[in-house]
Design a protein that fits this description.
By secondary structure, the protein is α/β, with parallel strands linked by helices. It has 2 domains: about 325 residues, P-loop containing nucleotide triphosphate hydrolases (Rossmann fold, 3-Layer(aba) Sandwich), CATH 3.40.50.300; about 180 residues, no CATH class. A 9-stranded mixed sheet has the order 5-4-7-3-8-2-9-10-11, with helices on both faces. Strands 1-6 form a two-stranded parallel ribbon. It has a two-stranded parallel ribbon with strand order 12-13. The longest helix has about 35 residues. The protein is elongated and about 125 Å long.
C-alpha cells in the first residue's frame, strides 16, 4: 500500500525526547504496564474564515480544503499510529450510536487526497454543495505505518454567531456542541485561531477556550492573516503585542504564535513557506521572536507541548510498575518452592490445607481480625455474618410472603435498616399474599365444605378440608426455601472460592487454584446443595401430603398438662 505524506513535517512534531518516551511506553506496554490511554490530540478552534484549516495544512502538509467559499461542515480527524504494516482506513463515525460506522476502501493515500475524501463523506452524510446543514458525524482518517508516531489532528467547523444564506441557527447549535465536546476533553491541545483583521475583543473563540481551559495549560494561540493588516496601524501593533504574549488580557501559559496563510495563487506548500519567511523578515512582525512565528516554529512549539503531555501521562507508570512487580512477586511466593518430589507436593498441599482451615474456621465462628476479611465496613468475606443475614431475610420473607392469602390489610412490617440494604443486594423476589376479606373467605369455605363432605357428622369440621386449606396457604414455602438454599450455598461457595484465591493465587495465574476449584470445590457444593434440597423435601413432606396436623401452642400445651395431672 502506498502512503505518500510529508513525514518530515510530522517528525518535527515528535522531538527525539518524545520518540524516546514512545519507545519506552511501547516496551512497557508489551509487558502489560504503562499503557498511555490518554494520547494527545491537536484540535483547531476558531471562527469561520479565521484560517483554521490552513493552519492544519501548514502543520501537517496534508491538503485540507481551504479556498473559496468552502466551509467545514463536520469534524475531520486525521489519526496517525505506529504499526508494522502500512494501512489506511477511512470511516464515518455517526453521532447516532445505533448506526454502525461506515468505512471506505482505500488502497493508498497521498497528501492531496483529503479534499476528495471529504466530498465523499459529505454525500454519505447527506450534505449537498449548497446545503446550510452541519453534521455531528465525524470523518476519521487513520494512517498506520512503521514510520508513524501516535498523533491526532482534528479540523472542526468554524464558530459563527448569526444566520446567513449558508448557515442556519440550527447549524450554530450543532457546531457549538461539536466544538465544545472536543474542547472539554483533557487530552485536547487547543489551537485557538484568530485573524489579525478582526477586532481583538470580538473573537468568540477566545472566550470559549477560556471557559474550558481557564488556566491556559493546553491552549496555544495562533494569529493568522498578519499580511492583511495595515502596516503601522493600531490593530497591527495590538496583535504584535498579543503574538509576544504581552497583551495583559490575553496572556496564555503556552504562548502565542503567528502564521501567514497560503494564498490561492501559491501553488505549493514550499512556496507558502518561502513567502512566509520573507514576510516575517521584512515587516513589522519581524519583532516577534523567531520561535513564535512561522510554521516551523509552531511545529517545534507543539512538539514540546506534546512531549510534556506524554511525560505527564507517564508520571504514574513508576507506581504502576511497582504495583505489578509486587503482584508478580506475590504470585511467585504463592507458587512456593519447586516441588520435585511427592513429599514436596504433599507438604505444599498440607500448608494450603492448614491455612484454609484456619481462615475458614475464623469465618464460621465470626472472627474477622485477619486481613483477608477486610475492614470494619467490608461484608463480602464475613461468612457467619452473611449466613445470619440470609437467615434473617428468610424469616422475614416467610412471615410476610409465606402464605398464599391474607385476610384483611396486613400490618405494615418493615425489615430493619441494615437488613433492608442487605436484601437490596440479595433480593428475595416473591409475590405478596393475595388479599381477601373475612366474608369472602367464609363464603368460599362454606362452598368448599359442601363440595368436600365425607363421613363426618353434619356440622362437624372436615379434617380433609383443613389439610387442603393448609396446603394451599403454605404452598409458597417450598419455592422460598429452595431459593434460600441456593443463596446460602452460593454465599458459602463464594467464600471458599475467595479463600483459595487468597491463599494460592488467581486461577488465571495459578493452575493449582483452578484445579482445586473445578475438581473439588464445585463438586462439593453441588453435592451439598442437592442434600439440602432432599432434606427440605423430607421436612415439607408431612405438610405437603397431609400426614401431620399442626397444633396450636395452647392445644399442645393443654394436652401435656392433662397428661401430667393423670400421672
Amino acid at each position: 500500500m502506498d502512503v505518500n505524506i510529508d513525514l518530515d513535517a510530522f517528525d518535527q512534531l515528535n522531538s527525539p525526547e518524545a520518540r524516546a518516551l514512545h519507545e519506552v511506553a511501547d516496551r512497557l506496554s508489551s509487558c502489560g504496564v504503562g499503557r498511555i490511554v490518554n494520547l494527545p490530540q491537536i484540535i483547531v478552534v476558531g471562527e469561520q474564515s479565521a484560517g483554521k484549516s490552513s493552519v492544519l495544512e501548514a502543520i501537517s502538509r496534508v491538503r485540507f480544503p481551504v479556498h473559496g467559499n468552502v466551509c467545514t461542515r463536520f469534524a475531520t480527524e486525521l489519526v496517525l499510529r505506529q504499526a508494522n504494516d502500512t494501512r489506511v482506513d477511512v470511516s464515518i463515525k455517526h453521532a447516532d450510536q445505533s448506526q454502525p460506522s461506515r468505512s471506505f476502501q482505500k488502497t493508498g493515500f497521498s497528501e492531496d487526497d483529503l479534499p476528495g475524501i471529504i466530498q465523499e463523506a459529505k454525500q454519505c452524510m447527506g450534505i449537498s454543495g449548497d446545503s446550510r446543514d452541519f453534521s455531528r458525524d465525524v470523518l476519521r482518517l487513520e494512517i498506520e505505518g512503521p514510520s508513524m508516531y501516535p498523533l491526532t489532528l482534528v479540523d472542526l467547523p468554524g464558530i459563527f454567531q448569526s444566520e446567513t444564506a449558508e448557515q442556519s441557527m440550527k447549524g450554530k447549535h450543532i457546531v457549538d456542541e461539536l466544538v465544545e465536546s472536543y474542547m472539554k476533553q483533557k487530552n485536547s491541545i487547543m489551537l485557538v485561531v484568530i485573524e489579525a483583521t478582526k477586532q481583538l475583543a470580538n473573537h468568540e473563540a477566545l472566550k470559549k477556550v477560556k471557559e474550558y481551559d481557564p488556566q491556559s495549560v493546553r491552549t496555544i494561540g495562533v494569529i493568522t492573516k498578519p499580511d492583511l493588516t495595515k502596516p503601522g496601524y493600531t490593530a497591527e501593533k495590538t496583535y504584535i503585542q498579543v503574538a509576544k504574549n504581552q497583551e495583559s488580557a490575553n496572556k496564555l501559559q503556552l504562548g502565542w504564535h503567528v502564521l501567514r496563510n497560503r494564498a490561492e495563487d501559491e501553488g505549493s506548500l514550499e512556496d507558502r513557506d518561502e513567502t512566509e519567511d520573507l514576510f516575517f523578515q521584512t515587516s513589522a512582525w519581524s519583532s516577534v521572536p523567531r520561535g513564535d512565528r512561522g510554521v516551523a516554529g509552531l511545529r517545534k512549539k507543539l512538539s514540546r507541548v506534546l512531549f510534556d503531555h506524554i511525560r505527564q501521562n507517564l508520571g504514574g507508570v513508576e507506581q504502576d510498575i511497582e504495583i505489578q512487580l509486587q503482584e508478580r512477586q506475590q504470585e511467585r511466593d504463592r507458587l512456593g518452592k519447586p516441588r520435585t518430589s511427592p513429599e514436596d507436593k504433599r507438604s505444599f498441599l498440607l500448608a494450603i490445607a492448614a491455612e484454609f482451615q484456619r481462615l475458614a474456621r475464623d469465618g464460621m465462628h465470626g472472627r474477622y481480625s485477619d486481613a483477608f476479611f477486610g475492614g470494619l465496613n467490608d461484608e463480602e468475606r464475613k461468612l457467619r455474618a452473611q449466613i445470619r443475614n440470609f437467615n434473617r431475610v428468610f424469616d422475614f420473607i416467610l412471615a410476610t410472603k409465606g402464605h398464599k392469602e391474607q385476610i384483611g390489610d396486613p400490618k405494615c412490617q418493615l425489615a430493619p435498616e441494615y437488613l433492608t440494604s442487605f436484601q437490596a443486594n440479595h433480593p428475595y423476589d416473591f409475590p405478596l399474599p393475595e388479599l381477601t376479606t373475612q366474608k369472602e373467605m367464609s363464603a368460599r369455605l362454606q362452598k368448599q365444605a359442601a363440595a368436600n363432605q365425607g363421613s363426618e357428622f353434619s356440622g362437624s369440621p372436615s379434617q380433609e378440608l383443613v389439610i387442603q386449606l393448609f396446603q394451599h396457604q403454605s404452598s409458597p414455602w417450598k419455592s422460598i426455601a429452595e431459593y434460600h438454599i441456593s443463596q446460602v450455598t452460593l454465599a458459602a461457595k463464594a467464600f471458599v472460592d475467595q479463600l483459595f484465591k487468597h491463599i494460592i493465587g488467581l486461577p488465571d495465574t495459578n493452575r493449582t487454584t483452578e484445579t482445586i476449584l473445578s475438581l473439588c470445590v464445585d463438586a462439593f457444593f453441588a453435592e451439598r446443595e442437592q442434600l439440602l434440597r432432599n432434606k427440605l423435601d423430607e421436612i415439607l413432606k408431612p405438610y405437603a401430603q397431609g400426614y401431620a396436623i399442626p397444633l396450636s401452642r395452647r392445644e399442645l400445651y393443654g394436652k401435656e398438662e392433662k397428661v401430667t395431672k393423670k400421672e
